Structure formats: structure tokens, C-alpha cells
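From the pipeline queue, job 12 of 40. The input is one protein chain; the requested action is below.

Action: predict structure.
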Amino acid sequence: MNTVELEVQGMTCGACVKHVTKALQSVSGVSRVEVDLANGRARVEGDLQVDGAALIAALASEDYPAKLASSAESIQSPKTSCCQPSQGGKNGCCCG
């Protein structure tokens, strides 16, 4: 079992976290997903490819660009919350 940490762009609210979590859990071999909205990161554990290609592709299909996280790279602060009832953004998320 290995762990992959990703930088995920576009998360702005709790609904985004749910979408990201669901997308990552759909990847074969994933056993655990932990999403950090404040830092724009997701940690995934399981029998995974170390390059994270399948995870990145799963997030891209949901309109959340991602890349492997690097501790040397800074992460931008997330946008302020704009959540209101769904207005047709990313899979029902109002922020997309």
C-alpha cells in the first residue's frame, strides 16, 4: 500500500470536497481518501501507481485540475465560500 498526495484546484466548499472524494474513491485500488479544503490537497492511500495518473484523470473528469503535491510548492489560499443552493456549476456545486 502506498500514499499519493495531490494538489487539487477548484475546491471552494464542502460540496466540492464530496465531489473530489467520490471521484478519487472511484479509482481502482483506493482504500482511503482524505481531502483538505483549506490547503487544496487530497491524500489517497491504497494499491496505487506512484505517479497518480489515474487519480489525476478521475479529478480532471470532474473538472478539478490536480497534480502531485510537492512540499516545496506553495498552495494558493482557496477562494472565499460562495455556497448557495445549486446554480448549475460543477455537478451541482454552486462555486464551479
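Job complete. Residues 14-25 form the longest helix (12 residues).
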